Known about the structure:
mainly alpha; 18 helices
Amino acid sequence: xxxxxxxxxxxxxxxxxxxxxxxxxxxxxxxxxxxxxxxxxxxxxxxxxxxxxxxxxxxxxxxxxxxxxxxxxxxxxxxxxxxxxxxxxxxxxxxxxxxxxxxxxxxxxxxxxxxxxxxxxxxxxxxxxxxxxxxxxxxxxxxxxxxxxxxxxxxxxxxxxxxxxxxxxxxxxxxxxxxxxxxxxxxxxxxxxxxxxxxxxxxxxxxxxxxxxxxxxxxxxxxxxxxxxxxxxxxxxxxxxxxxxxxxxxxxxxxxxxxxxxxxxxxxxxxxxxxxxxxxxxxxxxxxxxxxxxxxxxxxxxxxxxxxxxxxxxxxxxxxxxxxxxxxxxxxxxxxxxxxxxxxxxxxxxxxxxxxxxxxxxxxxxxxxxxxxxxxxxxxxxxxxxxxxxxxxxxxxxxxxxxxxxxxxxxxxxxxxxxxxxxxxxxxxxxxxxxxxxxxxxxxxxxxxxxxxxxxxxxxxxxxxxxxxxxxxxxxxxxxx
Length: 481
């Protein structure tokens, strides 16, 4: 053992005993999977939740938006809080908040109650998810860390992929009223993660002088919330203006704060800026499709929830099987052309969804198109991480990864808000008798929902196409050089 490796091993052993490392890994996998699953499983359950609670389309959007708002705005602050108060303490607090909020969601009597509970879950996830990798890094010495992180990534991806399928099975076999069990199942799983975590940790040192960007976290939350509200309700133009103003103040704060959670200096590198613009566009397109596709096919095409969950399968399958290959291609050719090709596939796939939607053929047209989208995203995700990491110094890699992670979630939040307004307008333009995504029947209801969904798919295709062009443009200066 070298002198450099000795302190790392000592720190790992003081945090947890060697025989307890698997417990830390198990808790990290289980808790982070709960956070990732929650964002997708609600899309499958949303029609049943909306009908049961009597929610309007904007309220149903906020079932997702409230969670994504606090998750995306606070995820960077969550990492800093772990340094300040102790990784295991903050991670455990996040799990506890997530459990309480899950119980509140399962018992929600009204749309407003559900929105508040979902917001609380977002806070829990923001405290929980950033700590998962940090816990593994602290528990395992350097020579064992890569394998542990690989196990975490594979297991988390598998559990995330199973989430919508489990949700679809519950709703299909148990009936629409069983949507509450999708949230209730988080209670025993979260409690198990908590017990294993605290049985495994020996000491959890805190850094009393570790800075937390409270002002930035508050401005990001208020700004994103107001902007999402304005995009959801086009009559609330003041909210859009207020959101943009608050986000402007957030940028000013991040430029001046000595401990900003999103250092603006990172964006001085054109490659880093281009990679994050691409992230915002491609994940915005993905978020809109994964939110509105299940609603449309379940309520208008009479596809069962378990069948609708198949739309998520290609993404999970291709990401788990092809990401390594895509990463190798990025190393060989550079990440930009690989990302551009993948984003082009996604652009074409969503255009095919839009073109074939009037046929209302989920298995014959929509699912094959989503397979192409999954193939494209498999060529985007790993190379995007490569592009982000290649644009910064090694000492900034953790911060850069966190910023990119937060931007991907902000993209889903804002795209779902904006696409909801687009869908509502398109449904009315098509003379729909009810409202977009509402359960029930009526003359022209299914046709209006389908036409509105196709507009959302066209918008997503456009975002993906722009992201491809962005990465090609980022490649051009390097060729000239």
